[in-house]
Amino acid sequence: MTQGAQAAVWFLPFVLPICFYVCFTDLREMRITNQAVIALAVIFVVIGPLALPLPDYGWRLVQMVVVLVIGFLLNAGGAIGAGDAKFAAAAAPYIALGDLRLLLAIFAANLLAAFATHRLVKYTPLRRIAPGWKSWNMGWKFPMGLSLGGTLALYLLLGAIYGR
After folding, report:
1. How far apart (Å, rounded) are the C-alpha atoms in residues 50 and 10?
2. By percentage, how much of the chain surpasses pLDDT 90?
3. CA-CA distance, 153 to 159, in Å (whole number)?
4. CB of 1 within 8 A of CB of 159?
5. Do 87 and 37 meet the contact criterion of CB atoms below 8 Å apart?
6. Transmembrane stretches, by residue range (predicted)?
7. Nearest by Cα to 115 from 157, 68, 148
């Protein structure tokens, strides 16, 4: 992994609760709140200079802007939701650019597992555990925050364990 273990350890205690919150709110309400996205971005802005060398910190801020522009274009084309685009942008600076292939593999596996689990629970009696969740009644729509939050959490956990 290109991600430094020390940086991942710095970020994890602050980012992990937000990832869980994003997963939960997207399942319950089919939305990723602006507060979660802003908190994720602010945490990077504050903790980033402590966890990363300044040149890396600057390039990762550029990553945030690039992903935000791409996300807005995808949202305008109807490919992804606005909350998903904003969360991806706020999460982008936590990812080392050299780990992009690894991140895509984690995301793909996480997306398949989250989709299968969500659909399994949706069509079984397990659904009664959380009967009021909006994601159960959205047809083919899927709460991507479940995969996005899970992917960032897994990436940082792997970075803390296996990072350089």
Report:
1. 8
2. 94
3. 10
4. yes
5. yes
6. 6-24, 36-55, 61-82, 102-121, 141-162
7. 148
